[in-house]
Amino acid sequence: MSPDFWIAQTFNGLSYGALLFLLASGLSLIFGVMRIVNLAHGSYFLLGGYVGLSVAWRTQSFVAALAAGALAIALIGVGMERLFLRRLRGQALGQVLMTIGFALIFQDLALLLWGGDPYSLPVPASLSGALTVGTLRFPRYRVFILAVAVVIGALLWLALDRTRLGATVRAAVDDAEMAEGVGIRVSAVSAGVFALGAFLAALGGVIGAGFLGVYPGLDFEILPYAFVVVIVGGLGSLPGAMVGSLLVGLLDNFGKVLFPELAYFTLFAPMALILALRPTGLFGRS
Amino acid sequence: MRAGLAALVIALALALVAPLLSAYPLTLLTHAAIVAILAMSLDVLLGYTGLPSLGHAAYFGVGAYTVGILSTDYQRGFLVCLLAGIVAATLTAALFGLLAIRATGTYFLMITLALGMVVWGLAFRWVSMTRGDNGVAGVPRPELALPWSLAAPLPFFYLALLAAVLAWTLLGLLVRSPFGLTLLGIRESESRMRALGYDVWLHKYLAFVVAGTFAGFAGVFWAYYNGFVSPVDVHLVTSIETLLMVALGGPGTLAGPALGAAVIVFLKNFASVYTKRWLLILGVVYIGVMLGAPRGILGALRRERRRPA
Amino acid sequence: MTAPVALRLSAVSKSFGGLRAVNAVDLAVRAGERRALIGPNGAGKTTLFNLIAGALPVTSGRITLFDTDVTRVAQHRRAALGLARTFQITNLFPALSVLDNVVLAAQARTRARFSMLRPVSRFGEVEAAAREALAAVGLDDRAGARVERLSHGEQRQLEIALALAGRPRVLLLDEPAAGLSQAEVRHMTALLRSLDRAITVLIIEHDMDMALAIAEQVTVLHDGRVIADGSPEAVRANPAVREIYLGG
Fold it and tell me: What does the alpha-carbon distance between residue B124 and residue B108 come to, in Å, rounded to a whole number?
């Protein structure tokens, strides 16, 4: 295997990790504030892809697809949180099980609305093809994914670290009771973070539709990846989601290329290692 | 005690009524009996120990696939397949348990889900072993030295019923034993159990392995019943269905989940006659149960003390 | 007359990040002694208990239980060595019966706990030990009741029963009288005074009357440090103690 192979695969792994970051960061933040694991998170990814697809077909606009997909699902996320999850305040397990119900409903609705065939999001010419550097080819779309993830990662980091709003969110993540005590409306923060998480997952879904495609079952297939990312990185931690998604992206990519029959099994080792050494993840808190 | 008696009465009643039933209801009951074993095994984890596993179908599937592969590719008989299936499921649970039991609460949920999908991934991609998406077909009914062929619905129903009663009896003994009481204690207050001197990790791990063993036991009979084993049997949706059986029926009772299994099996079969939207219905039932009777039906959730969000 | 040292803490400290909750605490409790640990809120008393019990790891220092160094020993193993504790915030098994609660305590250190196929009722000695503990705290008539149904006072009694059922050598009582009425406090005091002398008792208590009625020696904690250690009278007279903790 030539050095070109390794470079190309590393790049592929990083770009896949970038996509996972969009998915997992939302999941991690939602847990950080609300202490629930949203099992419908993969569904947000899926629905984002499908909605983006429909919009792309109608408007021929990639940007419109991105915006529509992300915003529509953010709205669904808010609806789910406000109208349903809120009713089980304090019952973490009940809320989690409720998200399962939604995941099933979303999966079936998607099947009903878009059918069983796999689709691919049409990507604009500017993002097709590849950049050639010497003997290496870097597909433009993958570069795009990396760029988007980097920008979003930076924005999230700055927002959390430098803004008042970010401080509010961090306070709510740190200690919801205390935050409530100093006047922070944790329920409003929850809704906001939930919407943001859904937005990011759906955005990932639309972008992913351009190279993974979108098909029935994608929601439950991608969910374990999001979970492994936050298990490795630590729930509620943005740096954890960043590091975790890169690691998982690389491992999965190399795993698929070198041991195609093993599928998810290649994620088994890092999970095992992390759990053995740091049960709450690299950046997690007990 | 009363539950045990009631179960025996029901089993007896079923055994007596069975010869009068036609093939379709018989196969439904067979299906329900097998899945009841799976649901009861999950109850040990969820209802009695308070560990919500979203990957329980993995051990079910390992048992089923073992039987499927051994009976078709290697033409092995019932006893060998049964033992191999149970052992394979037990070993898988023993391995996965080492990872999963380290985690608590939410992490446990996520890890068991991920591990369950790892098995699905293997079933799907390791085509040379599992035939991937095509599944393992043509699993023959066991040939036991009996005057009746197990290919017929009635004799096989009796076999499945026997298996269910056996599982019920053993699990019943387990939950009434000191070990079972220990699991309840862990569910109610892990911190108190540690302070009392219990190695909580070890007990949870043993519960995990035992639950996996019985899930594998169910899987063995599933393979023979269905004649076909596919990645669907180890998919997350199967784990989710099993969880609902336990939640719906009443966690921590053994009888409840068995009943829940029957309800879901009948519902699923009934629904599939009229619509393809089974998952939608299942999802709505899930949400309905959580909203409508989260305290009444879901005993295990009742245990959870209120925490500020 | 000198009994062996049942529990010894040598320069035990515990830091949470920048906060020193427990600061170089030295403690030596003799076998059979009744020692009260008092101090204002936030003094580090419960943290100290958690360190002794093994619920928290120490940052530095040593803890010895009857000549066995337990500093690095897991919590559940310390219980096996004869250490029992109660909790300040009642920590019972709510959905189980009173008897089941104590049975769990009694079977904790026996082989029985791994028995998977025989019913609980077959383990007579365990049940006997459980009922004994219930009788000791006066709850034998409530054996069948679910813990959720017990009054607060009864639950505090059950807390003690759980700790006693394992036949401990060292008993840590964390505010056993928390939330009890005057009458219940009197009952509790009598109960604790009647405890077997074979058990060493270390008690955190805010109710000064109760603490001094039970204890022969008092250790005063403030800001994680031991500031006084001696007989109840000596501690009462200690100016440093009077300053920070006006006689309870």
Answer: 24
CB contact under 8 A, B126 and A112: no
Name which of B49, B110, B281 to mutate to probe chain A: the one with the most chain A Cβ atoms within 10 A of its Cβ.
Answer: B110
Q: Which domain holds residue A38?
A: 3-122+135-277
| The 3-state secondary structure of B272-298, one letter per residue | HHHCCCHHHHHHHHHHHHHHHCCCCCC
Give yes or no for C107 touching B (CB within 8 A): yes
ipTM: 0.91
Mutate to test the interface with B, among A38, A100, A225 (most CBs of B within 10 A): A100
In-domain check, residue A84 = yes
Q: Are C170 and C200 in contact (CB under 8 A)?
A: yes
| Interval C83-92 mean pLDDT | 94
**Over residues C74-89, mean pLDDT:** 93
On the question of pLDDT at A206 being above 90, the answer is yes
Residue A127 lies in a domain: no
Q: Is residue A285 part of a domain?
A: no
CATH of the domain at A117: 1.10.3470
Tell me whether residues C55 and B195 touch, CB distance under 8 A: yes
Q: Chain B residue closest to A108 (CA)?
A: B280
Q: Do B196 and C105 touch (CB under 8 A)?
A: yes
Q: Measured between CB atoms, does A257 come within 8 Å of chain B?
A: no
Residue A43: pLDDT over 70: yes
| DSSP E strand stretches across chain C | 5-16, 19-30, 34-38, 60-65, 68-69, 83-85, 170-174, 200-204, 217-222, 225-230
> How many angstroms separate the CA atoms of B157 and B268, rounded?
19
| Residue carrying the six token digits 């970051």 | A21
Alpha helices in chain B (DSSP H): 2-17, 23-43, 57-72, 78-100, 105-125, 127-130, 153-176, 178-188, 190-196, 200-226, 236-249, 255-274, 278-292, 299-302
Residue C164 CB neighbour total at 10 angstroms:
25
CA distance B181 to B214: 19
pTM to 2 decimal places = 0.90
Q: How far is C13 from chain B (nearest CA, A)?
A: 21
d(CA B220, CA B222): 5
Q: What is the pLDDT of residue C174?
A: 93
Which residues in chain B are contacts of C76 at CB distance < 8 A?
Answer: 193-200
- CATH 3.40.50.300 in chain C: give the residue spans: 1-82+168-248
Considering only alpha carbons, which residue of chain B is nearest residue C147? Answer: B188
C-beta atoms of A104 and B114 within 8 A: no
Could you tell me what percent of chain A has a pLDDT over 70?
Answer: 99
CB contact under 8 A, B122 and A262: yes
Instruction: Please compute the mean of the pLDDT values over residues C52-71 and round it to a whole number.
Output: 93
Q: A30-34, A174-178, B71-75: lowest mean pLDDT where?
A: A174-178
C88 touches chain B (CB under 8 A): no
For residues B100-124, average pLDDT? 87
Q: How many structural domains is chain A composed of?
A: 1
CB contact under 8 A, B192 and C91: yes
Q: How confident is the model at residue A4 (pLDDT cuts 50, 70, 90)?
A: confident
> Is residue A129 situated within a structural domain?
no
Q: Where are the alpha helices (DSSP H) in C39-172?
A: 45-53, 75-80, 98-107, 124-137, 152-165
Q: Considering only CB atoms, which chain A residues are within 8 Å of B278?
A: 108
CATH topology for B2-302? ABC transporter involved in vitamin B12 uptake, BtuC (1.10.3470)
Chains C and A touch (3+ CB pairs under 8 A): no
Contacts of B204 in chain A (CB under 8 A): none
The closest of A229, A281, A283 to A251, measured between CA atoms, is A229
Pick among 3.40.50.300, 3.40.50.2300, 1.10.540.10, 3.20.20.140: CATH of C1-82+168-248: 3.40.50.300
